[in-house]
């Protein structure tokens, strides 16, 4: 059986990329709800309906585990989804805990970059409240990065001016760790590095999610010796055109260089 990966768009590829490092011989399904991307700027209940429909479709393909490779979808639906299905469902959340641990001794702040919906959710606020005992965590929504990614616009001459404008009110020297709280954002790591000090760490939850997936499958003795094959779906339809498949491969190759 395959491992499912789900996101509103191509952001989840960044999490799949990490899973392929730890579980290169598994076979995968990647489902992007491209008809409804971006999730982060839509009403919560509308997004929940999209998520449940997508996960139902993925479950019907036959998967042994599912990764909700979307911070927004995780924050508003993962607990309910776990009650509905009998296979493991993993989510991803902003890597606030390691960021705070990294910065507390350095007298530096943490900046969480995410979507509006993720940053509004109680799940995120509870996470920060449980960890941030010295009030060092700040946040900023960057919905434009999702649009850039979905339009395959990764050129620094386009991305950096947007980032510079959004960060113009921040003292960038104050931050020790930048948390990428949206799975679309790792594509823009190089652009972000142009604005912050060289020693600033830029992290996401992708590696932790991939490691957790491996641990769960090992514990269930479900590690397969497959071929690393990936089936791609867009909002319920299998992707078979050569251009789209080529674009997915390009994204995975690009992430090798980030």
Short key terms for the protein model shown above:
isomerase, alpha/beta, 258 residues, four-stranded parallel β-sheet, 2 domains, Rossmann fold, Asp/Glu/hydantoin_racemase, globular, Glutamate racemase, glutamate racemase activity, EC 5.1.1.3
Please, could you describe this protein's structure?
This protein has 258 residues and is of the alpha/beta class. It has two domains: 2-92 and 206-256, Rossmann fold, CATH 3.40.50; 96-204, Rossmann fold (3-Layer(aba) Sandwich). 45% of the residues lie in helices and 18% in strands. It contains eleven helices and ten strands. The chain has helices spanning 13-22, 44-60, 71-84, 96-103, 116-120, 122-131, 143-150, 156-166, 189-193, 206-219, 242-256, and strands spanning 2-7, 28-32, 63-68, 89-90, 109-114, 137-141, 175-180, 201-204, 230-234, 237-238. The strands form two sheets. A six-stranded mixed β-sheet has the order 4-3-1-2-9-10, sandwiched between helices. It has a four-stranded parallel β-sheet with strand order 6-5-7-8. The model has no long low-confidence stretch (mean pLDDT 95).
Biggest sheet descriptor: 6 strands, mixed
Radius of gyration: 18 Å
Annotated CATH topology of the largest domain: Rossmann fold
Structural class: alpha/beta
Approximately what portion of the residues adopt beta-strand conformation?
Answer: 15-25%
How many domains is the backbone divided into?
2
Mean pLDDT: 95
**Helical residues, percent:** 40-55%
Spans with pLDDT under 50 lasting ≥5 residues?
none
Number of alpha- plus pi-helical segments = 11
What is the CATH first-level class name of the largest domain? Alpha Beta
Shape: globular
Sketch the topology as an H/E string, one letter per element. Answer: EHEHEHEHEHHEHHEHEHEEH
- The overall strand count is 10
GO molecular function, one term: glutamate racemase activity
Function: Provides the (R)-glutamate required for cell wall biosynthesis.
Catalytic activity: L-glutamate = D-glutamate
Active site: 70, 182
